[in-house]
Amino acid sequence: MKKVLALRALIFFLLIIVSIIAAGCSDGYQSAFRPPVGARKAEMITVRDCAGRIVEVPVKVERIGCLYAFCGHVVAMLGKGENIVAVVEGLKRDKLLTQMLPNIKEAAAPYTGGAVNLEELIKADPDVVFIRGETARNKGEMEKLAKSGIPYLVVDYRNIEEQQYAIGLIGQVIGARTKAQRYNEYYQRCIERVQKDLKAVPANKRVRVYHSVNEATRTDARDTLPADWMQVAGANNVSVNQDLKLIGDKYFASLEQIILWDPAVILVNESGVADYILNSRQWSSISAVKNRKVYQMPNGISRWGHPGSLETPMAILWTAKTLYPNLFSGLDMVSETKFFYKEFYNYDLPEELVRQILSGKGMRVSKESTR
Fold first, then answer.
1. What are the residues whose beta carbons fall under 8 Å from the beta carbon of 318, sequence distance 6 or more?
2. Are 337 and 357 in contact (CB under 8 A)?
3. 44-175 adopts what CATH topology?
4. Contact criterion met (CB below 8 Å) for 211 and 220
5. Which residues contact 358 (CB under 8 A, 6 or more apart)?
6. CATH 3.40.50.1980 occupies which residues in the chain?
7. What pLDDT, in 10s, does the model give residues 190-206?
8. Segment 293-327, tens digit of pLDDT
């Protein structure tokens, strides 16, 4: 009998200890992982990002992280720029964008040198984060984002159709689907407008073009957005289908290759590169340089025609007119530029600023001046 009573006492004692421990653990998880009492979970929807991932995001997105400059340009175009709370440093260097949206300059920059600063990202407290495909292919960066608990969407594209899907995706996530659709309809009209007139130019008569992306020898490979839009604009892109050097997600040609290709026209994205090429003895034997047909592309919200540029339809129009001025004599790029920024950014450009955009000069703050 004594043994039974002792056993019962022991069991009772253990039950008390277990109850105390359980209560302590419960309180700890409440403060660390559970929402405050009375808080409600946001209503969610599911979307498919550009990597094919199914992602759950809030129905109402109020704070947006853009860890890819293209996404910041799209969010601004869709009328949600004031909701951007985290950016890449490159967005802060776009003069027209920061003129429209001064808050971009003050936004957190939790992504530098290809790496996410998790602490800074969490501090910015975005409801969703948009990242580029290159980031998504980095296992270490994906592990960081998974730890944050913030929904993130991969934005990536290799051609016009995929870029339009990316624009539609961003519109769906931030509650601006109709405006994204309107932009894509304009994009498609620009393509149709150019292709209609280019029917008069046989494939073997189309202008041979070399496209410089940022650095003089960085260029376009097949299965990339610039390869697609340049073909639409009537360019015979000399670097496509060639053996290029891949560094990260960038493709480079050698100067020897460019000399052998001997393009009739060179288009450049980065301010100063055209002057470098035109005044370089090493480039002087190329037909485009001999004939002074090296052109700086425009720069508005972004560098037109750049792989990460939203203004692809504008690049198509400008390039078609530059390569075939007689065929597109009725295309007024000043009027078209004014229309574009008024229609999609609700921004009235003064004539002087239109001219500066079309010159491609002075529209981005240099990296050196931001250090």
1. 297, 298, 304, 333, 358
2. yes
3. Rossmann fold (3.40.50)
4. yes
5. 298, 318, 333, 334, 337
6. 44-175, 202-370
7. 999 999 999 999 999 99
8. 999 999 999 999 999 999 999 999 999 999 999 99
